[in-house]
Design goal:
CATH topology of the domain at 104-212: Cytochrome Bc1 Complex, Chain D, domain 2
Order of helices and strands: HHEEHHHHHHH
CATH architecture of the domain at 104-212: Orthogonal Bundle
Number of helices: 9
Oligomer: single chain
Helix content: 25-40%
Largest sheet: 2 strands, antiparallel
Radius of gyration: 28 Å
CATH class of the domain at 104-212: Mainly Alpha
């Protein structure tokens, strides 16, 4: 009984010291802390002097040509803009009459805009599929139905991107969500370039249409192919020189 009392007393004492510490004491020596306080970490404080630089200023102007993480260097108007590796060189920004910063922010004026501000081509969709499979599938699933592997491990807050709410959501708002995150979704702006964000959105729109496709979505000249028996479609063509 006495041993248990001593053990509990020691644990309570250690817990008290760890929580409250001795920050009220004055001393010229560095304090002893079980858990080092973050207020004493080495860092540059805003509007504070710093002896490391000759002019004594801590905050520094960005290096010439610096751009935010996830964004590209400005391009001439007549050259490919934001074309990520693997995209065709013909990709370009489209001109929008409202909101000149739509490509980088998703906004037209003060409202979320809609539309893919770069040419939607097979190359763009392939790039979007690749980036989606790398970054989004683990949570949202291969068909964007919100059934990714993370849901099996307890992340129950993942939404289905096939919901009508997301289908009707403006492209610019989805772009903003990818960039800055929302609710339990982290910001992916530092990890995904602007062009790739739009490629993902273009692929997502294709995924959404694929899950609710109707006969009206098939071009009239191709609808006859749907009526052919499966065996006819899958018949292998004879190799050259063989009968």
């Amino acid at each position: 009984m006495l041993r248990a009392f001593l053990l509990i007393s020691i644990l309570l004492t250690v817990a008290f010291v760890a929580v409250f510490g001795f920050r009220g004491q004055r001393s010229g020596a560095p304090p002893f802390e079980l858990f080092p306080d973050m207020v004493r970490q080495m860092k540059v404080r805003a509007q504070s002097p710093l002896a490391f630089f000759a002019d004594g200023r801590g905050p520094r102007a960005p290096v010439l040509g610096t751009v935010p993480i996830g964004y590209e260097m400005p391009q001439p108007q007549n050259s490919p803009s934001g074309a990520a590796p693997g995209l065709a060189s013909t990709h370009r920004r489209l001109a929008f009459s409202v909101g000149t910063d739509y490509y980088d922010t998703g906004k037209m004026g003060t409202s979320w805009g809609t539309g893919i501000p770069i040419d939607v081509t097979p190359d763009l969709l392939a790039r979007g599929q690749q980036r989606f499979n790398i970054t989004c599938v683990m949570c949202h699933g291969a068909t964007a139905a919100g059934d990714g592997i993370t849901k099996q491990y307890g992340l129950a807050t993942v939404v289905s991107l096939q919901d009508d709410r997301i289908r009707k959501m403006a492209d610019g708002e989805i772009f903003n969500t990818i960039t800055n995150g929302k609710n339990t979704m982290l910001a992916y702006g530092p990890n995904i370039t602007v062009a790739d964000r739009w490629a993902i959105i273009a692929y997502l729109r294709a995924l959404q249409r694929s899950q609710r496709g109707t006969i009206a979505d098939v071009p009239p000249d191709l609808r006859a192919e749907l009526d052919k028996p499966a065996a006819t479609k899958s018949e292998a063509k004879p190799e050259a020189g063989k009968q």
